Amino acid sequence: MAEEVKLFKTLSSPFALRVDWALRLKGIQYESVLEDLSEKSDLLLQYNPVYKKVPVLLHNGRSISESLIILEYIEETWKQDPLLPQDPYARARARFWAKFGDDKVLPSLWTAFISEGKEQEAALAEASENLQKLEGELNGKKFFGGDNIGYLDIALGWLANLITVFEEISSLKLVDGERFPLLLAWMKEFSDVPLIKDCWPPHDKLIPRFIARRQVYRMKSSST
Amino acid sequence: MAKGGEVKLIGGWPSPFVMRPRIALNLKGLEYEFLEEKFGAKSELLLRSNPVHKKIPVLLHADRPVCESLVIVQYIDEAWPSSGPSILPSDPYDRATARFWAAYIDEKWFPSMSGIARAQGEEAKKAAIDQVVEGLSLLEDAFGKISKGKPFFGGDTIGFLDIALGCFLGWVRVTERTQGLKLLDQAKVPGLAKWAERFCADSAVKGVMPETEKLAEFAKLIMAKFRAPPPQ
Fold first, then answer.
1. Which part of the chain is the GST C-terminal domain (chain A) (predicted)?
2. Residue B74 and residue A99: Cβ atoms within 8 Å?
C-alpha cells in the first residue's frame, strides 16, 4: 500500500523548505500542496488549528506541525539516511543550535532587514554576535553535520538562502568573508548540494515577496 | 538508585525550567549533584558552561554541558535508555504530539502566564488572563486525547509533556493566589485539575516542586526588583 505523504507549504517559507530537504534526503515520495496564506485552505486550518501555519506534514491521514518537530518525526519514521548523529551528546548539541537559530539568529536578522535607523543598528550588532557563534560552531567542518549535511544544516539552511535575498534588497553586508569565512563557505557548499539546489526557491520570486513584506512592517511601525 | 556517572545540574530552586531535568533525573533513578546558583549573580561555572545564553538549567555529564531544558530532558532520555521508564513515548507520532504541545507551552502558554503579572491596567490584565484560560482549555483537550484515560500525558507514568507543563504548577498556584483567580478550575478543566494533583504528588516531583508559600515570597522579591528604579 502506498504511503500518503503530503507537505503543505508556500513558495517562500524557509520553514517548509526544511521539510522538502529532509524528505528528499531520505528519498521519500511526497506531494506538495501550495498554500496561499492570505486565504488559508480548509485543510490547513483543519490540520494545524493551533497555529494555522505552514509547514504541515500529512502522513497517512495524521498531521504534524512545526518544522523542527516534523524533522524529528521524519527521522524517526524513515530510518534510512539519518539526519541526526547517533551519539546523545552530539544530538543534544544539534538540537541546541537549531533552537538557537530559530530563537535568536533568525529574529535578529529579520529585524535587521526590516527595521531602519537606530533599531536596525542594534539589530545588526545582535545579528553579528549571533552569527559569530555559528561561525564558532562550524569549527573547520564542511557542514554542521560533518562531511555530509544533517539536521543542523537543514535547520540553518534558510541562512544560505535568505541572507542573499536580504543583502540584495537592503544593500547591507550581513555575512562577509572577513568576519565569517567559515559561514560563507558553508553557505556555498550547502547551496551546491544537488538535492538542496533542486528545490531552491526561485530567487526572482523571493525578491518581490520580501520587499513587499518589509514594506508592510515599515508601514505598520510608522503608523503607530 | 542507579549511579549515573558524574552528573551535575546547575540551577535554582524557583526555576520551573530547572525542575524539568530534575524530574527527568529522578524518573531515571539517577544521582546528581545540584549546584545551586545564587539569585542575581551568575557563577563562573555557569558562564563557562552556557556561554551562549548564560542561563540555567545546565546539565554537566562527565563535565560536558547540555543546555536548554527540553533538550536536556531528551538527552537524559537518550543517554540512559535502560534506566527507568522512557520519558518520550515510543511511537513517532506520539513523540511529535508531545513535542508540539511542549513547544506550545514554552512559546505561547507560559509567556501568557507571566504576562498576567506584567499587565498594566484592568483591561490588559483581563486580556492576559483570558489568553491563559484559552490555552488551558486547549491543553485540557490535548490531555483528554493524549492520556486516553490514563493518569498522565505519558500514560501510566510521568512523561515528557507532563514534565513540560507540570513544572509550571507552582507558578500557576502563585498566580492564582496573588491575582485571586482559579486557573485550574475543576469545573472548566477537570482533567488538568486532577492531573495536577497527581503530578505534584508523584515521587519524582514531590522533592523538587517548591512550596507555594516559598515561591510566592520569591515572586514578591523579583517583582520588587523588576519595578525598582534603576540604581544611581
1. 87-219
2. no
